[in-house]
Amino acid sequence: MSELICYCWANGNIGFSKTRVPKGALPVATGDGIKWRGEIEVLCRLAYDNKTYIISEVRDAVLHGGDALEALRDFMTKLEKLGLKDPDTVLGQKIRKLAKSNQESLNKVRSSV
Q1: Lower CB density within 10 Å: C or N end of the chain?
Q2: Please, what's the largest Cα pairwise distance for the chain?
Q3: d(Cα 81, Cα 59) in Å, to the nearest integer?
Q4: Residue 40's closest CA among 83, 88, 92?
């Protein structure tokens, strides 16, 4: 089996690559083969073109003014809980840290209102 990288664009669309994450996309997870890819796709929404898979939580956050990084972090946590690999990369760790920081800032604003 070959190792695949799942990545996400800012609009929530996901893609898979055997070699690298395209510039402008964020890594979501890595895993082996077609079965693993299918497990990721089952957790996503299929777009109207019947080809594109979308992390619906990220897309919804983008469309409704939510926190897309937080939504991506939540999706990555869901993958971890299901036993699918989370990227053990510096960038993956930065995504989690940034999402947590954004949530803490949002909580401070809400509590002061």
Answers
A1: C
A2: 53
A3: 22
A4: 83
Give me the tens of pLDDT residue by residue for the chain, a chain 113 residues long.
578 888 999 899 999 998 888 888 888 888 888 888 898 999 999 999 999 999 999 999 988 988 888 898 888 888 888 877 655 555 556 656 665 665 666 566 556 65
Query: Rounded to two decimals, what is the model's pTM?
Result: 0.73
DSSP per residue, 57-73: HHHHHHHTT--HHHHHH
Q: What is the DSSP string of 45-113?
A: EEPTTSS-EE-HHHHHHHHTT--HHHHHHHHHHHHHHTTPPPP-SHHHHHHHHHHHHHHHHHHHHHHH-
Break the chain into its structural domains and give their ranges: 3-112
The Cα–Cα gap between 108 and 15 comes to 35
Q: Which two tokens stand for residue 52?
A: 């594109």
